[in-house]
Amino acid sequence: MKRQKSYLNYIIISRPCSKDPAIAPVQIISVMKEKPVSEKRDSVLRDNVTLVLINDEVNTFEHVIKSLVEVCGHDTVQAEQCAVITHFTGQCEVKTGSSKVINMMYVGLLDRNLNSEIKS
Description:
By secondary structure, the chain is an alpha+beta fold. The chain folds into two domains: 3-36, no CATH class; 44-119, CATH 3.30.1390.10. It has helices spanning 37-46, 61-72, 76-89, 99-111, and strands at 3-7, 10-16, 26-33, 48-54, 91-98, 116-119. The chain is globular and about 70 Å long.
């Protein structure tokens, strides 16, 4: 029976020396150094992409705001601000996250006839 414990940045894999784990000391099988926390964060951040809403001069503010609330999980104030920014500047970064989640939001905006794109 193997037990795995994590201490600081090391993973220690051990097993009991006898059949009774309550009284038996453990034998260390291997010690592996984990990746530092900063490397883990970097790999997560590398997967992040940005969903950009593009102005199309067709959809109403109400439709854009409602769509951002439903698809991207914005509150109404945030959605309204994104709609205004998109109207005046031509585009607005509305969401950043993992590519899987952003792709689903991208499809949701396309289903509502809103122009958008994904940037890495």
